[in-house]
Amino acid sequence: MVGYNINNIKITNPILGGIIMSLIKDMSKDELLALKKELEKKFDAFKAENHQLNMSRGKPSPQQLDITEKKVNKLKNFVNYDEIDVRNYGGLSGLRSCRELLSDLTGVPADNIVMGGTSSLNLIYDAVAREFIFGSNGCKAWHKLDKVKFLCPVPGYDRHFAILEEFGIEMINIEMDENGPDMDTVEKLAAEDESIKGIMCVPLYANPNGVCYSDETSERLAKMKTAAKDFRLFWDNAYGIHHIYKETKLANIFELCKKYGTQDRLLYFFSFSKVTYPGSSISMVAGSDNTVKEIIRRMSIQTIGHDKVNQLRHVELFKNAEGVYSHMRELAEVLRPKFDIVLDTLEKELKDTGLLTWNKPNGGYFISADTIEGCAKETIRLTKEAGVIMTDAGATYPYKNDPKDTNIRIAPTYPSEEELQSAMNIFCVCVKLAGVNKLLGGKE
Ligand SMILES: Cc1ncc(COP(=O)(O)O)c(C=O)c1O
Predict the structure, then answer these.
(1) Which atom of ligand 1 is closest in space to residue 121's alpha carbon?
(2) Are 332 and 413 in contact (CB under 8 A)?
(3) Which residue out of 207, 239, 276, 280 has the highest number of ligand 1 atoms within 8 Å of its CB and is therefore the one to mutate?
(4) pLDDT (0 to 100) of residue 16
(5) Does this model's pTM top 0.85?
């Protein structure tokens, strides 16, 4: 995370029409009142423009989907044969060729991969449900226990938290730094509390703060002692190949768990939702030999199989890992200017105000920003009033409860560059207005 701590720098702010201002946080009451007036004028002008902009969800833009579609349209006769007839029943764990492609991308052996349907979130839900209903590793099913708890690095992905909440699992916030979750706390809690059954990790370009787990963090997660025999390391590598500015390497968690004899702990998830089509992609879950056996056993009751025609379509489209990487480089060309717009506008408008800090991710789908305490909800309320829908404040925390009310998730991928620039101009004024009002409240 990049934090700004700049003292009394004088700047000229173009959005405020050339007002010279010092660090807003340090302004006198009179200076703040003058600034508030200017900001309200700007805000009212934005409102009068009747914007309808949406920066709320991490969806690929139509431009990204079109890049994929051009290639899909060139495919002929993709319904051919792998080791089985893809048109028919059979092959519950998915096409071998597809699992081999995913193996090259994730570093997990193809034999330890099970294909899912279009959504990895579905596989994550199923993994929690299996433990909850049936249990694993000779341990009691979680529904039979008084209390089940999970460690949740924050800020995090709202849908992970929604699944855990749905099953009545108590979520414990774990702070993060630039290396991943606070491992001292993770190790301590996991070692002393048997009711802690897992941790939710997005190890590369985490949603929303773009944090990439260091090799040391990955190793400690694989190595740590856990009081629960059925502790599960949910490794949701949703952005594992989604580099934008610079490629960040992730340690091979499968190998690390093998090295420390904790291979049954790992549940590795991955999907092509942001590679091809979120509505029609491929997903996988991987784990130890035991875990895969258990998943297949349960899955064989649940379904006859997932969409193998689509799996083959993906193999035919990319051929090999290099085919996927080259496609991702094309998509990054579309995403980079959008991330630039967000980062440049934040830098220009808010860098020296003391009202917002933000991260500069090297990949993924989001930028995470933090207002001063108690201002995130108000900022989002103001952006909505001015016609910009953003992810709800609080959504990045378990129970939608951001204890300091600071975190805001910016999702730049879906809007056009023009829309994004307008949305960011409005956002910056709203951050300032909410911040100035908060500071004025403290001076009454
Ligand atoms: C961390 C994370 N995991 C999973 C998903 C959903 O993936 P899928 O479309 O494969 O269900 C998302 C989508 O935003 C995500 O950010």
Answers:
(1) 11
(2) no
(3) 207
(4) 39
(5) yes
